[in-house]
Amino acid sequence: MSNVAVTGFIVTVIILFSIGIRTAEAEITVWGLRGGLWGKLHSSIKTMYLQGLLDGLAFANSEVQGEKISKTTSHEHLVKALDQFYTDYRNELIPVPFALKVISMELAGREKLEIDKELESLRRQFLDIQKKKAKQGAPGYGENPSR
Predict the structure, then answer these.
(1) Secondary structure letter of residue 67 according to DSSP
(2) CA atoms of 113 and 77, how far apart (whole Å)
(3) Residues 89-98: tens digit of each pLDDT
(4) Suppose 92 and one of 5, 35, 114, 120 were both cysteines; which one would form an S-S bond, judging by CB atoms 3.0 to 4.6 Å apart?
(5) Which of 117, 147, 116, 145 is nearest to 130 (CA)?
């Protein structure tokens, strides 16, 4: 592994541990790796992050909010799917594990209406969290996450 990859990995780990917040109402841990940051990462860092996330999910029964995360496709395909998911600005606040939930629903052939309903729910949920944190003056909240 090159020094650049190692440095990128270390920076990613530091970011993930330093930006985590916990919301009391929803009891959901929201990490800083959302759409705005995802788009700025090099593809090798995306792959390493995704591998770590999937490894963690493997020990947690590969579920996010009761939805099994797809194991029927490659990591490269999931990275491309996440890239596509985050091209929609409305998805920027949705953390990667929840984005994988939506992508897995699509890969499993779930009804479009059900997927759209879940996606809209996630958008509202994380926008509400963003607004509450901005009101509380939390660092890094109150500005557009992609800037």
Answers:
(1) E
(2) 23
(3) 999 999 888 9
(4) 35
(5) 145
